[in-house]
Amino acid sequence: RIMRPDDANIAGNVHGGTILKMIEEAGAIISTRHCNSQAGEPSVAALARVERTDFLSPMCIGEVANVSAEITYTSRHSVEVQVNVMSENILTGAKKLTNKATLWYVPLSLKNVNKVLEVPPIQYTRKEQEDEGKKRYEEQKLDRLETKQRNGDVIFPIINPEPHTVGYSQSSLIHLVGPSDCTLLGFVHGGVTMKLMDEVAGIVAARHCKTNIVTASVDAINFHEKIKKGCVITISGRMTFTSNKSMEIEVFVDADPFVDEPRERYRAVSAFFTYVSLSKEGKPLPVPQLLTETEDEKRRFEEGKGRYLQTKAKRQAQMQQAAQQ
Amino acid sequence: RIMRPDDANIAGNVHGGTILKMIEEAGAIISTRHCNSQAGEPSVAALARVERTDFLSPMCIGEVANVSAEITYTSRHSVEVQVNVMSENILTGAKKLTNKATLWYVPLSLKNVNKVLEVPPIQYTRKEQEDEGKKRYEEQKLDRLETKQRNGDVIFPIINPEPHTVGYSQSSLIHLVGPSDCTLLGFVHGGVTMKLMDEVAGIVAARHCKTNIVTASVDAINFHEKIKKGCVITISGRMTFTSNKSMEIEVFVDADPFVDEPRERYRAVSAFFTYVSLSKEGKPLPVPQLLTETEDEKRRFEEGKGRYLQTKAKRQAQMQQAAQQ
Amino acid sequence: RIMRPDDANIAGNVHGGTILKMIEEAGAIISTRHCNSQAGEPSVAALARVERTDFLSPMCIGEVANVSAEITYTSRHSVEVQVNVMSENILTGAKKLTNKATLWYVPLSLKNVNKVLEVPPIQYTRKEQEDEGKKRYEEQKLDRLETKQRNGDVIFPIINPEPHTVGYSQSSLIHLVGPSDCTLLGFVHGGVTMKLMDEVAGIVAARHCKTNIVTASVDAINFHEKIKKGCVITISGRMTFTSNKSMEIEVFVDADPFVDEPRERYRAVSAFFTYVSLSKEGKPLPVPQLLTETEDEKRRFEEGKGRYLQTKAKRQAQMQQAAQQ
């Protein structure tokens, strides 16, 4: 579809969140279709996890987004989907790969939303494909467990913070979940949640560096808990790390089922977003260093640095590999 | 209402699809109101057909759209509505007729959606009005039957197409039907479908000629099949004909009731859209000729030429008639 | 237009904010049209104030909103507009007055947004009309000055608050101002701001009483400061007063022109919203009493009580007057 002014920031760059929402919609369609391809109980595929995603080149207003999706692995209860987004300038015909994403879905019964159904197996053309898929499946399963334990952190408000401290840019947003946000099962689409997360992370980044910012990458996101229609969700973001030219922001999503529900507020999702600051010509700008004050902030900065260096090393290894081929 | 940036393309011209959506909403309101004006089973008017519509002058961001609707004929089971759209520049006070449309609605029972109810007859001021309406009614009925037969065609993807061939510009878009897209009966508003059709047709036209394009006219659209909430719809478009300054695009809408429905994918709507290419000063530009390769493409080109010449002849006859008066 | 699921809460009642947005759009159109009705510098009418508005009966999904607007007074630099909203059930034909609102607009030059232009005078059918209008004009002018002074208050976050305290339900929302939120001058439509204010106030009310809530009335809102495209706005709400069956919530809007602007964060708008809690049958429910802790909270509760009693007395006086006629 064509990118509209509302999909983009004032510099005309499409929000990362808009792209994540399109990716998730494509993934939900293909995996729901697959899970209902054999006779049996009807089901709706719910997003369980999105693997780390890099935004390779910014998309602009007026360009057309081409989204293609393919099922690459099935376990007994989950589906792995690979989604590619190409941006196409229909005036010049130029096409660019915007990003590639890998998503995991789980089929939930349409009649009983707490029941996970079985997934019809796909056919692999080579035995290797299945083995590699299984390896990816095991890895993400382990990672899901780990983040579940980490998930208890809370962002406390800070009064009169200094510029460039963590408290200065931290932000939060509340959203009342409406019918358009939800699947047939009455739960929020994963893509809607990711779009709101990107919105908060973008505001944190812009408050910190006060320039035009764009999403550079999103770390793996695990959806541990479903969010029901009618909930109020609070999305909070704080900066954890800055390199010379990038900012890492941690985002939490808490759901508050406050009408007619006995349940307390709970943490539904958390993730790390990385942003860069762009000049008017689209070149990356230096970013002011994050000032850490408390022990926790310093620890999180070091952890963020670890993730940053690891990603950088991985990317260099990939580039060397590519150069050798 | 005031036209916003999201209603328009990057050159500031309001999408034909936005206007079609407003027209259909006005038609649905007036015909639902009429069908419930007498005591009896409550009903919701569903769009059955839109007659050929010309876009007389482009509307721009910031202008106000004034939409007026009037019932012009009733048969036993259908209502004919005439809708006019005026664009008003509230700064200069200038008003222009943007388009006139004729829509046909059918009242469906609120309790049993497969039951078509009777329409209360309207009063005609002159006997002629009734006769002319009846003639229009018979004509559209015949045309509806014909398009139903034509509806089986499918658009296949083409790999590495040459510029200006049919395969080069053909496009498709997938949309998951949400609650805001639907009427009280849980079926997609005709206006929502037309807006998506216009979006796809616009992408096809822009891919072909790589300039700023606007909707010039829409041929009669017949809504043979309803589309239910929760369906995935695929809207595909391909170019069928080019004259020196216009492009004709055929658009298909297929619905995929992929959850909880035994039904196969089916063709819901099809229609022809005509686009022109505009220079920055708003003047029509020449259009590159469509290169036809297969026998089918050549046949469709000739058929498109037939429609083009017929419309041109009709318009000239009208102008001569107007000149003689 | 037809009310959609997205316009309403999960009980199907249309949000007060949706109605306020429609009212303001109608007011902006009629006053911009009037201000440009004579030759001279083109201008766009900007919302300066909305008088107190009562929501007389709830509107539901599927109903049609009929909005009518009329200019009732002009001063040298401002326009008073009266807007009525009728809800129409197109199935039964039943119409109800949803609310009446009075809005004040000021024409700003399209070329120089800081220049307020002159308003062409309207013709009054009776001298009394002009005198009464002038009286309303003087009253609102006085009230505007007063609220400007009150506007410095800030909502501080509270950690682990007790149920039914002020801190327990207070909420805030951030929103990045996009192109669709703005007028031709690049400033946020008053209606967009009011919709967001109603959203926050509704969340505060629902958090307090955990039931289905609807907007009952909005006190006069003064728009002291314009908000520019690209700003981040923070909308915060806190409960100030509860009667047996109503809740009063104070809402603040702060704008943060954080990209490319030398200006600090500033207070753009503030207002009081009153909500009631409804049972499934649509009857008003008792509301838990607000627990006030600090001196400021107690003071605000007494002030809210004052406003509540004043409104009640006014309404009784009007009813007696109506009964005597």
UniProtKB/TrEMBL annotation, chains A, B, C:
Signal peptide: none annotated. Residues 296-306 have a biased composition (Basic and acidic residues). Its EC number is 3.1.2.2. Gene3D superfamilies: Hotdog Thioesterase (3.10.129.10). One of its GO terms (molecular function) is long-chain fatty acyl-CoA hydrolase activity. Residues 1-111, 167-281 form the HotDog ACOT-type domain. Keywords: Cytoplasm, Hydrolase, Lipid metabolism, Repeat, Serine esterase. The keyword Cytoplasm applies. The active site is at N9, D198. GO terms for biological process: acyl-CoA metabolic process; fatty acid catabolic process. InterPro entries: Cytosol_ACT, HOTDOG_ACOT, HotDog_dom_sf, Thioestr_dom. Its main location: cytoplasm. It comes from the Eukaryota. GO terms for cellular component: cytosol. This is palmitoyl-CoA hydrolase. The gene is Acot7.
